[in-house]
Amino acid sequence: MIDVAETIEFDSRALVADAPARSHASERGNEAPENGKPHNGAPQDGAPRNGAPRNGASQNGHAALAVRVTNAFTVDVEDYFQVQAFAGRIDRRTWDDYPSRVVPNTHRVLKLLETHQVRGTFFVLGWVAERFPELVRDIQRAGHEIGCHTYWHRLIYEQTPEEFRDDLRRATRTLADITGESIVAFRAPCFSIVEKSLWAVDVLIDEGYQYDSSVFPVRHDTYGMPGAYRWPHMLHRTHGTLVEFPPSVRRMWKFNVPVAGGGYFRLLPLGFTSRSIEQINHDQRHPFMFYIHPWELDPDQPRLPAPSWRSRFRHYQNLGSTESKLDRLLAGHKFGTLTEALPGHLRS
What we know:
Layout: H1 4-7, H2 12-18, H3 24-29, E1 54-57, E2 63-65, E3 71-77, H4 102-115, E4 121-124, H5 126-131, H6 133-141, E5 145-148, H7 161-179, E6 185-186, H8 199-206, E7 211-212, E8 233-237, E9 240-244, E10 249-252, E11 255-258, H9 262-267, H10 270-283, E12 289-292, H11 309-316, H12 322-332, E13 335-336, H13 338-341
Parallel strand pairs: 3-4, 3-12, 3-13, 4-5, 6-7, 7-9
Antiparallel strand pairs: 1-2, 8-9, 10-11
Helix pairs in contact: 4-12, 7-8
């Protein structure tokens, strides 16, 4: 894993060169947030930051970069019965009663990544790691980064800071004992670091975390900070600093449209996701943050009682086509780990 200091180096001369082309409103919209507070509105799409030459054109008319942008491929390693949609119906104390499918499903993801020679970042649930340590070692042996997804998959804003710290420490210790490495990357369950739970960033910094990918710049019934900065940046807090790499959104009709993966990847046409990656890479000159869950490649998983038709639709729709779509996505774009995608693209 690379050090944070290596990721914050970018061409400041290019930023200065681009400055005259930006309006004052655009400059304000693209400033990195201070003290972890989001902007009132999402930044406007601006000119490329680094002046790199453009070369050729893709099928949809976007110019291709002379050097392809490395996008972040991430996996939230949890089982089908641990999804937040079922939290009100399935007591966490009964998780052991359900037949686990996380090991074979995660190996399906690993096989795809091996086929396309891609390394990714796997945010592993502590509960899963404790019961299946060999799975964590398989991920590590394949060259992937290991991050933390908490232990119990509880929404951050439904916990106190003390409860979150205890959960985080248990998960971190479990993963560190298995891997023999420091765990420094984190993703909250359901992207549940929101305005009212920004205190969690301070806890992460206190516990030695360097990277986070939890702040989703969208409106959603469970998560989201629609005014948050959309690109990788340093979050400056009184407790220290942390790299925030938000899940990707596409700016359309003055709204942030979620395109980062998961259910959005399953429900939207593959072409829309691919064009969104190209638009973010080529026009915005930023890496794309993609995420997926192993259970999303498993159309044969047991059907569980969902609280609403919306939850059923979100969880079960298009499970049978996810693996083939993912195969084609990996073939068409350049992916790597979270830290491999950061150098040259991080605002300080």
